[in-house]
Amino acid sequence: MKHLLSLNNLNSNEIQDLLKLSEKLKRQTKEGVQHHLLKGKTLGMIFSKSSTRTRVSFEVGMYQLGGYSLFLSSNDIQLGRGESIFDTANVLSRYIDGIMIRTFNQSDVEDLAKYGTIPVINGLTDEMHPCQILADLLTIYEHKGKLEGLKLAYIGDGNNVAHSLLHGCAKTGMDISIASPKGYECDSRYVDEAKEAAKSIGSKVVLTQDPVEAISKADVVYADTWISMGQEDQKEEKLNIFMPYQINSQLFAKAKEDAIFLHCLPAYRGYEVTEDIIDGAQSVIFDEAENRLHAQKAVMATLMG
Ligand code: CP
Ligand code: NVA
């Protein structure tokens, strides 16, 4: 494992190893045990989109690992003025030990990895959000005691989070059902990759337009915003189309009685999920947000250690 660009590049064992290391680092952090696995190392964090969780958890994580992090807004570095990915990758490789990047095109993240000589971590693109899903898997494991054999239902837009969930579930033996409105389905490339992984492990990948079918008997129910970053101009049109996909008490009741609710956040209460569900007893959204820290520390320690 040289980079974290897509969960599809990791095999099941690599994902399990990252989850085990996340758990260990989390336990040590709670016990106040220092683990300066990246002492003297520097992470550059390039952001072309907003962030609360990703930025703070990477920055704090690097500090807890004994290293240092640099926040590089694409508005402030020359990349935002048209400097090439090739030059950026080569220059940054001479200064720092790893790059976390949040941007639009997945191909830019892959090019950064291709042209540079240091590990690259995908902190979200329009197509993928692998760090989020590692934190989600850790959260599900903590609450359910296992991953294999569980059913996760994702209800909503078939983009970055859904794509990485496809990979993450398929590779850990979880069944995944995704319900999206027509025209907002997952990219078939990632569905095929997940089906391929699921085949060898014996799990199921189901895509539907019917939220009731997807959520039926689910152990884990997952929502993301209907309006992703960069799509703000589609808001009016999407709200009407997505309303039947709102996770409310009526829909949530079709999941298993002990189902947990996850949301990568930021959440918009009253749109993709109602307040009673996201703030209810079965919601684990803040454990999930916390686990970004622990999961990403494991990723950084593995790639940059
Ligand atoms: N879930 C997530 O990536 O949150 P941020 O956009 O706040 O980083
Ligand atoms: N789908 C959302 C995820 C935010 C973490 C977006 O791309 O904005």
Automatic annotation (TrEMBL):
InterPro entries: Asp/Orn_carbamoyltranf_P-bd (IPR006132), Asp/Orn_carbamoylTrfase (IPR006130), Asp/Orn_carbamoylTrfase_sf (IPR036901), Asp_carbamoyltransf_Asp/Orn-bd (IPR006131), Orn/put_carbamltrans (IPR002292), OTCase_ArgI (IPR024904). Residues 2-142 form the Aspartate/ornithine carbamoyltransferase carbamoyl-P binding domain. Residues 148-302 form the Aspartate/ornithine carbamoyltransferase Asp/Orn-binding domain. L-ornithine binds at residues 160, 224, 228-229. It is found in: Cytoplasm. It is an enzyme of class 2 (transferase). Pathway: Amino-acid biosynthesis; L-arginine biosynthesis; L-arginine from L-ornithine and carbamoyl phosphate: step 1/3. Its main location: cytoplasm. GO terms for cellular component: cytoplasm. It holds the Pfam family OTCace. GO terms for biological process: citrulline biosynthetic process; L-arginine biosynthetic process via ornithine. Reversibly catalyzes the transfer of the carbamoyl group from carbamoyl phosphate (CP) to the N(epsilon) atom of ornithine (ORN) to produce L-citrulline. This is Ornithine carbamoyltransferase. It comes from Ruminiclostridium cellulolyticum (strain ATCC 35319 / DSM 5812 / JCM 6584 / H10) (Clostridium cellulolyticum).
